[in-house]
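Deviation from plan, reported transparently: DQA complex.
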Amino acid sequence: MSLDFDEFVLAAATADLSEEPDAREHADVIEFRMDLTDEPLAALESYEGELPILATNRAAWEGGEWDGSDEERLEVLAEATEFDAVKAIDVELEAILDGDAESVLGTARDRGVSVVASAHDFEGTPSRGEIASTLTEAAKHADVAKMAVTAESKKDALALLAATEQVTAHGDTVATMAMGDVGSHTRAVAPVYGSKIGYAPVDPAEATAPGQYDLETLSILVSELSS
Ligand SMILES: O=C1C[C@@](O)(C(=O)O)C[C@@H](O)[C@@H]1O
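Because the crystal trials were delayed, the predicted structure below was used instead.
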């Protein structure tokens, strides 16, 4: 399967690649959270799973747990693209705009690995217009523009969905979701408005963001609502 994100992609998030067989039934890719494990490159080296990998090495300043320098973090992410199973990487939009990610973006381009440029708001939900401009900016640098917000009201969820529809209608490929309980349903509904990636933990006890559904539930909801 090529990872062009033309169709919705269900990503099973995990820090443990040995869980891949549990994800196969419902997921299209494994989101490997490199920042949540000790030896991520060694884990990629011994990966024998069937699902392609979207590699994420999330910075602490963007809600992740990488505790080394940013330079090293992006270098390790670039090294991950050497593995055939790695078909996409996630790079923080802020690192891209700061100019820190030029090398990893170039490496990904040279190796034919797709790039997801992501932005997170853990405090709340910007206006529809602000979400749309962040997504539009991210889309200039990557194959998929991703934004995760924290919804505190139904109005927040609607702002996210409206921005998703707007930027998709403009022709960009986006992935959107609202974190938290109030926003949970957007994980199932945003794909109706164009969102091309959904995330769910392989192990429901190890959610990688607040408000995630388990893998089977998200898979069922998305296919029911989008068909
Ligand atoms: O950025 C994202 C989206 C996410 O935060 C979510 O809300 O599902 C889950 C993370 O694993 C992933 O890297």
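The longest strand covers residues 86-92. We consider this an acceptable substitute for the interim report.
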